Amino acid sequence: MAVSFRKKICLLITIILHGLLLVTPAADFYPSFLGCRHEHGAARAADEETLYTCSMHPFIIQKEPGQCPICGMDLVPLRRGGGRKEDEASSGIITIDPATQQNMGVRTAVVTRRNLSRTIRTVGIVGYDEPRQYSVNTKTDGWIEKLYVNQTGESVRKGQPLLDIYSPDLVAAQQEFLLAVRNNAVLAANPFPEIAKGAENLLKAARKRLEYLDISQEQINALEKNDEITKTLTLYAGNSGVVTRKAVNEGAFVKAGTELFQLSDISHVWIYADIYEYELPWVKEGQEAHVYFPYPRPPIHGRVATIYPYVEAKTRTVKARIDVNNADLALKPDMYVNVVLEGEGAEDALTVPSEAVLRSGQRETVFVAVGNGKFDPRPVKTGLESDDGYFQIIEGLHEGEKIVTSAQFMLDSESKLREAVQKFMPATPDAAPTTAPGPAAPTQGELDDLFK
User: d(Cα 249, Cα 247) in Å, to the nearest integer?
Assistant: First the structure.
């Protein structure tokens, strides 16, 4: 019984509302026959509403014309006649009238092709040419009797005497050599060839031992000629250079293999230039480099010999080694110099002015002027940046397109603002019905049941 009474009540309400809908067919609410639920349609009048904004402060939006509360400028329409077209709303294209463009200072340029170059200016440190560094040591234990080179920084010529050393091993080697000389002189005329040959080989071995102990050929010849053992023997410089390390004094005892001097030939030096990570595409091996002194003096020239395959942890730079001739010794090791590299990048590259690119984290955007006051925010991918203020465009633009080079931040904020506003606007239906649909009229049987 309760179910039948409830059904009669619902049918009665449906008849009343159905009569109202026949009188006012444009009503914005509709009863639901099943479950007696209500739905509310979107009002088309709200979609036709015009909003007003400030060209200088696009975050100011009002429903009525007036003046900006911040700068006092007249507000301009943001939406007219139901707003932008659906394709413009989805792509982010914005429309700005000429007067507003002039107030914003919008300027444009054309996407063109050009050769990109970049001058890299960095600091360098003068270093030693590593293959031209030499270590002087003795091959026997002994005592340093005299030092001929006794100062760090002293220039040394090849063949110049460095020190006199007394060593029991050297004395014994001299004795063996003199015995071999005398024995060879006695047995040279022996009727047995094998004996004469053996004496000759023994002399050669004794001579070779002195040579291996760094005794010069002149000293060996003098020993053979004088037939007299000397207490000390002299060590000579095997290379020219500057004494960069001296680790011995007169009278000191040294063991075999101990480094006594370190000589460095600085007539040819290396310069280590710091290259930042973003500059690496511009630096190549074999590239010419100009080195400027920290005082008035003409620059010298060299070439990039090596780009080291690792990054310095502290400076976050990569070392580029430049080989430079230094015959006049003007470059001193550990001196700071200025280095200029003329880098050559892409040829015939598609480019835009650097001020045309908006960077926001991982996204790069360029506003393209598509005509009739419309601007399209186009995502792009950039490459190299030249000295004269141009970005290489890898993808996103085509040659000849007109792009915005100023006031992009205002355009960007306007685009994002309108996109946000568009999300709050009611959707415009493709075809609005002339009369609002109503619920199905109750059947005659249901009307009869209502009054039972």
Answer: 7
Helices 217-226 and 193-212 meet at what angle, rounded to 10? 130
- Terminal-to-terminal C-alpha distance of the chain: 12
Residue found by looking up tokens 């780009």 in the block: 307
The pLDDT, as a whole number, for residue 272 is 97
What are the residues whose beta carbons fall under 8 Å from the beta carbon of 354, sequence distance 6 or more? 385, 389, 390, 391
Separation of alpha carbons 74 and 53, rounded Å: 9
| Whole-structure pTM value | 0.61
Residue indicated by tokens 């690792």 = 310
Structure confidence by residue, pLDDT tens digits, 142-200: 999 999 999 999 999 999 999 999 999 999 999 999 999 988 888 887 788 888 888 88
Q: What is the DSSP letter of 69?
A: T
Please give the CATH number for the structural domain made up of 88-113+348-407: 2.40.420.20
Q: Where in the chain do CATH 2.40.420.20 domains reside?
A: 88-113+348-407
Q: State whether residue 388 is helix, strand or coil.
A: coil
- DSSP string spanning 362-423? TEEEEEEEEETTEEEEEE-EEEEE-TTSEEEEEES--TT-EEE-SSHHHHHHHHHHHHHHHH
Tell how far CA 391 is from the center of its chain: 15
- The sign of the CA dihedral 209, 210, 211, 213 is positive
Q: What is the pLDDT of residue 123?
A: 95
Closest CA to 291 of 119, 127, 118, 122: 122
Q: Which CATH fold would you assign to the domain 120-129+266-344?
A: Elongation Factor Tu (Ef-tu); domain 3 (2.40.30)
Closest of 56, 111, 54 to residue 78, by C-alpha: 54
Query: Where exactly does CATH 2.40.30.170 map onto the chain?
Result: 120-129+266-344
Q: Which residue has the tokens 């290489």?
A: 392
